[in-house]
Amino acid sequence: MTDSYLYAAARTPFGRFSGALAGIRPDDLAALAISGVLAKVPALDAGEIGDVVWGNANGAGEDNRNVGRMAVLLAGLPTSVPATTVNRLCGSSLDAAIIASRAIETGDADIVLTGGVESMSRAPWGLPKPERAYPAGDVAAVSTTLGWRLVNERMPKEWTVSLGEANEQLADRFAIPRERQDEFAARSHHLADAAWTAGFYDDLVVPVAVDGRGDTLTWDEGIRPASTADRLAGLKPAFRPDGVITAGNASPLSDGASAVLLGSRAAAARIGADPLARIAGRGVFALDPQMFIFAPVEAANRALKAAGISWSDVGAVELNEAFAVQALACVDAWKIDPGIVNARGGAIALGHPLGASGGRLLGTLAHRLKESSERWGVAAICIGVGQALAVVLENVTEKNR
């Protein structure tokens, strides 16, 4: 067995639903992220890539089932570079990195390109196929953008509540008030804006030309630096008349792609760069479907155990903010300093294009560790239908040796 390392990461800016990136197909977004990460390692012959593992939560439309392979071809890589697409919903690109790291550690591959993409703006509507020709009744089109669809009647009703209702139940269970959620959401916007202003994302994000007039999206489109807890408090609840979940303290629908290059230590010469971080531990966990938002707690604990460390060793955490209440519940359960969590902004501000978010977390975490010289970091993400994933990174950059 050998170790696997993160060498480079890149992503597109994340666009708002029906925003600047809505006119770009998901396979084209994925190709842009692939080109962006390979531009960071110009010495690498793309033909040396042993496999591409790509995340995508939809696959029903222009994602074209195996969007990873489509993106490889569109990015101009040699046709000899294989690719697969994996779907673990919101965790798809983190799952892709986990799968790739195992392939490297077992010797099945030496260099693996991973990542993910989602265009929630372009997700199609679907129609159930009729059981027989010429049905007499009407058929409703179903949105494939987010959440449950065409639900099996044998599924218990408590499992198939909406994502928002599931978070309302979490807020009730842990008595997390609206005020804390709005404060956390405002913090996400402020930290994201400060990170962009300070240049933190300059080396991570690849600008995207958005139309034929030369316009370019360079920043994440959903950041609202003027957000305050008081302003967010004025928004109406989105799921219960007297609820606490609003459009302001939940992550938005988004478009975007991310890419992460992994390899063995021996691959450094061919890649032409030193690694940033070692994949030190992995964790997966599942519980009742409606409690998916709390699953990162145990997934991260398992990843830490696999790495042989504890929370007291961790200096940086990237936790996907699907909802503010979900992030707060996890941080409270871990009993960690909230200041180390999403210090460069989170999904509430940056966006959450489902299949791309795991790659964003890994890339951001590796760069935070390099910047701070902290040794250990955790990336974790909740996943619909009751699951979660987590990865521990160990900083191996020069100034941490």
UniProtKB/TrEMBL annotation:
Top-level taxonomic group: Bacteria
Stored PANTHER family: ACETYL-COA ACETYLTRANSFERASE, CYTOSOLIC, ACETYL-COA C-ACYLTRANSFERASE
Cytoplasm keyword on record: no
Gene source species: Streptomyces brevispora
Residue intervals of the Thiolase N-terminal domain: 8-265
Domain Thiolase C-terminal, chain residue ranges per copy: 275-394
Enzyme nomenclature, EC number: 2.3.1.9
Catalytic residues of the enzyme: C90 (acyl-thioester intermediate), H352 (proton acceptor), C382 (proton acceptor)
This protein's name: Probable acetyl-CoA acetyltransferase
One annotated GO molecular function: acetyl-CoA C-acetyltransferase activity
Gene3D superfamilies given in the database record: 3.40.47.10
Keywords: Acyltransferase, Transferase
Keyword Transferase attached: yes
Family: Belongs to the thiolase-like superfamily. Thiolase family.
NCBIfam families in the cross-refs: AcCoA-C-Actrans (TIGR01930)
